[in-house]
Each structure stands twice: as structure tokens, then as C-alpha cells.
Amino acid sequence: MFAVLKNLGWFFKREKKRYLIGLALLIFCGLVELLPPLLLGNAIDDIVSSSITWASLVQYLLMILGIVAVVYCATYIWMHRLFGGANLVERLLRTRYMNHLLRMLPPFFERNRTGDLMAKATNDLRSVAATAGFGMLVMTDSTIYLIVVLFAMGFIVSWKLTLAAILPMPIIAIGMVIYGRAIHKRYTLAQDAFGDMNDQVLESVAGVRVVRAYVQERADQKRFQDITDDVYRKNLAVAKVDALFEPTINFSIGLSYVIGLTYGVYLVFQNQITLGDLVSFNMYLGMMIWPMFAIGELINIMQRGNASLDRVNQTLNTPPDVTNAETTVDVKVPDTIQFRDVTFRYPSSTIDNLNNINFMLQKGQTLGVVGRTGSGKSTLLKQLLHEYPTGTGGILISGVPMEMLSTDQLHSWIGYVPQEQILFSKTVRQNIQFGKKDASDELIMDAITTAAFDRDLVTLSDGLDTLVGEKGVALSGGQKQRVSLARAFIGDPEILILDDSLSAVDARTEARIIDNIRSKRAGKTTLISTHRLSAVQHADVIVVLEEGRIIEQGTHDELLELGGWYREQYERQQVENNLTSEEVS
């Protein structure tokens, strides 16, 4: 049950001063709160014996008021310490969780749903963090405070009466064990269902245009209703067990009151305790109500924390699919890129997605990758990102196997523009500056001009400060591509990878961008995959892929002479371009 506290041991050690002060004051408050019942009992005995005076009555009242003031101040401090610690550990855990996600690579996100990852980052981490605040409170009150109250009842009033009053306590212990196991199981299911709901919401919001286009609003509402009903049912199952804690405790405490009052009156008549002692005992018995509830809350919060911790650890304990070698080689500049008999298969694939790939690029050269849809163009380019475990063969950069290079160093050389552009919900300027932090407006405009976005920029309402919306929804497909290109250009990377990133622009804009790349990136390596062969005519090496294999390789002129797929596709596109030009004219 206390595994969550054990796993948070690093935090308690780090914040030991905070928790020592908080717990010490909490225990101090528990001890001081024992005094008012004792004083009240003494006052009643003085009244019964007619020995009370105004001076002694005022003294009793002032002492009780003083104790209340001291407890008020000490309570403020321990609550600030303990619950402030809960907020602090939640921030630290969320930061650690986010950093872990940022280290993860595509295979991880293919195996895990975004909605479930978000649920772990919110509800689950909040449940774990609660153990560092409220959990420490209820643990202290259900153990130390309970022991102190029992000590006061047994040694200050009557040990016989105390033993009789705590006879119903085993009922609570048995109930807590049974309820705790049920809470852990049901809360895990409820959190899983919450993750499913998150995922459904994300899909519905991201695909709202498709949903509306196919008139699937009612069907989507029905799916969401079904999943929220499932979340409701599973949380209701948790609530049903949770609701059993209080009645069980109330029943046991009620029995304790009956036993304490009945046996206490008997002891008063037997002159074994005074009337004041009986009043003090019943006040102490009332003080036991919270520790009894604290036991139930302790079981509840620890089981919830354990269930959430198990889910979070499932993610945190997942190692990256690609890690740095124990000893890395430092390469200053990527002078050459060589694929030597590279064969690769995605973890989810049953066939080789690349087969026996061979080519060599010198620094400053351009590689064109073409082929039918699904031939492996993107897969080939992604090999340089080292996001998947390598297959057989070798990818050498400056003669060094890619596995021997630091991932950070490898990525620092690369500017990557994928097929599906991702823009952040920020301004055009901020999206482009993502490629080079704090880049000046002059550099930004140069990158925009290279990406042929300068003419579009003047049409935007606020220019560089125009908000692009979530995932660039305020921009057209071609505009999003060119902002993404500008983001890659601004860093002037040693290796630029364009993965079919000119598909949404017209032929003239594409030609302008290609001319800009050739002039601006002289001496830098560029890799371009495309369906439009005009984008790679200038390339030093062009490879034609078919089912993951290179079926043709050479320059533009050499491939035309071969008379294979490349020539056939080139002639077809030339005819299409001519027809388009005639229609426009």
C-alpha cells in the first residue's frame, strides 16, 4: 500500500526540512489539543466539588483560548509546508514526465495513445502528488495522533474504559483491507477509461472538419456519449467502494460511544473514575473520530496513488527505442553520407520496408528520391533521423557508423521538413524562430524569401505577428508548407531533408524555391523526396524506389537515357504541364 511513498523517497529526502517542520508541528498540534478536554474535565470536577472560583474559571478559559491560538498558528505553518510540498512534487513529476516524453521516439507514440498519455500527465500525477500532502497528513493523524489520543484515554482517564471502547476497532481494520484492494483495481480501470475519453476528444476536435464533411456529427456524439457513460460507470464503481468507508467507521465509532458511555457510567457509580474523567474521556473519544476517518482516507489515497503510480511508471520505465552508444565519436562536419547495404523494417511491419539500399553523397551534393506512393521514400530519408532501431547494413557519416554518433550532434546537423507540417499555435515569427532561437527579423525575412512566402506574408492581417491557429489552421496547405520550409532554412543546417514538402505549392513557386535552395545552400547537403520530378532534376544523385528497393539510380540525364520508370514518369508529367499551360493561356 505504501509503495507510492517509497517511490517518492527521493523527494522526501530532498525536501526533508520542509517535511520535518510540517510533521513536527502537526504532531505538536495533536499533543496540545489533548489539553482542552483535560482542563474541561478538571473544571467540571471543581464545579462538582464546589471548589471552583472566578479566578480559577478565568484561568481555565484563558488557558483554553491560548491553546486555540497556538494551534491556529502552528496549523497554518504545517498546512503550508505539507500541501505546498504536494504542489512542488506535482510540478517536479510533471516536468520529469514531459522530459521523458520528449526523449521518446515515434515507435513509442505508435504504441501509446495521446489521450492516455495526457490522462497520466494530469489526473494520475495529481493523485500521486496528493500523497505528498494530504497523504502525509492522514498517515500522521491515523497513526501518531491516534496513538497519542489512545495514550491520553488510557493513562490519564482509565485504561479499562479505553480497552472496552476500542473493541469495535478490528471492524475498521478488516473493512479497510477489503475496500483498499477494491479501490486500487477499480480506480485503475477508471483512469484507463478517462484516457480513452481524452483520446476520443482529441480525435473529434482534430478531425472536426472531416466529421462535418461526412455529416457524422450525431455518430460522433453517440461515440462520445458511449465513452463518457463508460467513464461514469467506472468512476461510480469507485465511488460505491469509497462510500463504504464512512459508514463502516461511523458504525464502529458509534459502538465505541455506546460501550464507553455505558461502561463509563458504571465506573463512575463504582467511584473508579470521576464525572469529569468521563466527560474528558468522551471528548477524547470524539477526537478519535478524525483519526478513524483518516485510516479510511489513508487507504483510499494510497491505493489511488499506487494505481496512478503504476500507470505513470509504465510510461517512465519505458526506455527510448534508440539510445546513444556508451562511447560516441565526435565528428565536426558531415563530409559524406553513405548507405551501405541498408535493409530496414518498421517494428509493426512484417516485410522489409527498405532492401539493400546503397548510395554515397559528398558534402554539398543533392540527393533526389522518387518513386510510386508507398515505395519507401519517406522511410529512406527518416533513416538519417535515427528514430528507429537500425536494421542491417550501415549508414556512415564521414565514415563513422551513425550508431556511434551522439543523437544530439546528429540532429544538430539536420533541418527536417516532413510531409505533414506541424505548426504551433503561435505567430508566424515564433514558428520560424523555432528553427533558430531569437533569430532577428532580417534572418526571418531571408528564410521567408528562400521559402517563397514573402508574397503571402503581406496578405496576412498582422504580418509576422499573425497567429496561425492550432496546427496552422489559419493558413492554407501551401502556406503551411512554406512556413515549415522557412523554419528549416533559418538554421542553415548542414543536412536539409525535404520529405515531399513541396506537394502543396504550384509549379512556379516550386521552381522558385528550388532555385533559392540551389543558390543559398551551395556547399550544404540536401535530400529531397518528391512525386514531381522537376524538383529533383538538378540533383547530383537520383534514386528511384520500388517496394523499398532502388531500381534506378543516376543523374537526371542518365535516368532519361535508361528509358525506365523515371523517363516514363517524366514524360507523363511534361505532357500534363503542357496541357495545364494551354488551359491557363
Automatic annotation (TrEMBL):
Residues 20-304 form the ABC transmembrane type-1 domain. It comes from the Bacteria. GO terms for molecular function: ABC-type oligopeptide transporter activity; ATP binding; ATP hydrolysis activity. The chain crosses the membrane at residues 20-40, 60-79, 128-155, 161-179, 249-269, 281-301. Gene3D superfamilies: ABC transporter type 1, transmembrane domain (1.20.1560.10), P-loop containing nucleotide triphosphate hydrolases (3.40.50.300). It is a multi-pass membrane protein. One of its GO terms (cellular component) is plasma membrane. CDD domains: ABC_6TM_TmrB_like. InterPro entries: AAA+_ATPase, ABC1_TM_dom, ABC1_TM_sf, ABC_transporter-like_ATP-bd, ABC_transporter-like_CS, P-loop_NTPase, Type_1_exporter. SMART domains: AAA. Keywords: ATP-binding, Cell membrane, Membrane, Nucleotide-binding, Transmembrane, Transmembrane helix, Transport. Residues 337-572 form the ABC transporter domain. It is found in: Cell membrane. It holds the Pfam family ABC_membrane. The keyword Membrane applies. This is Multidrug ABC transporter permease/ATP-binding protein. The lineage of its organism: Bacteria, Bacillati, Bacillota, Bacilli, Bacillales.
